Each structure stands twice: as C-alpha cells, then as structure tokens.
Amino acid sequence: MSEHSPQEIRAEALESLLVERGFLTGEDVDESIEVYSERVGPMNGARVVAKAWVDPDFRVRLLADATSAIEPFEFQGGEVQKLVVVENTPAVHNVVVCTLCSCYPWALLGLPPTWYKDPAYRSRIVREPRRVLVEFGLSVPDGKEVRVWDSSAEVRYLVLPERPAGTDDLDEAALAALVSREAMIGVAVL
Ligand code: FE
To answer: Of 1, 33, 31, 29, which is closest to residue 17 (Cα–Cα)?
Structure first.
C-alpha cells in the first residue's frame, strides 16, 4: 500500500509527464515551490500596507492606481493584472471575496486560505456580510458601512487596514509585522 495521498500521486504523475515531454524540468518545479513558499506571501502585502501608513504620497498613488504604485516592489507571483486597494476608514469597512471562484492577489497575499474558496463564504459574505464577519470575530459597528468587493480574473482587491492606535513610534518594518493576511482580506481589523 502506498503512503502517498491520491493528490500527491496525481501531482507526481503530472510532474513526471510534463518533464518527460519536455514542457518543464524538475528544477522549474522546485523553483515554483520555493517562490510560493518563501518569496510570495502575505508579507508582501504587509510591506505595501506599512509603506502606505508612513508615506502619504505613496498612499495617494496606491489608492489611485495600485498596479503601478507597487511596481517598484517587483513582487513575483503574477496574478495581478489590475490591483485595486480599498481603504478602511472610521466610516467604511471593506471586505474582499471572489463570488465566482477564488480570484485573489497572489503576489501580495500568497496562496488563498481554504475558507476563501468555500462556497459558503463566497455566497454569504455578499448577502449577510455583517453576520459572516461576526463569525470571523469581527463586529462592525452599526454606523459603519460595510463594502464587499467581488474579485475577478482581471481585478484583484487588497484592503488597506486602519493603522492601529499607539503605533506612532514604530518604523515601517515593525508596522509591517503587525499586518495580518485576514486584515488585508477584510475579515479582521488590527
Ligand atoms: Fe475567482
């Protein structure tokens, strides 16, 4: 009996076939795995958020045209043809979904969490966002508007969370360490 899961066996068979047919090399596969496990992840989005908090000009450019504003970071991972950054304020809370499938800003947040791909999240966050957010542990005050942004193959959204109080003394790197993936999707605040 094999100790490998059906998914592992399938992935290995697919890799062998692609290598055998000359579409890619074993090194290409290792390289991709390294990129997504070590260089692409929520730490990239967190760097963007921290910079927006400390650099007002960058914040303005980010909110106007995030795709070009983040070019200098040279993030890998693609999947961001057009990036739109939506800002949380005392009056507005933003949350992101892909109702159709699981579109997500990979280059900034890495691989999507399982719940993001769950049909229940994808349908309910649109119909009853406040209730779903409470299930994530986030209670949005009645007076605050909740905006839900539906991603697509063309447009990916990132939430710019509000900067936590009492962080005036922190530098950009220390601020980035405070920013969670959930806050950049909008199911949490900081
Ligand atoms: Fe999608």
So the answer is: 29
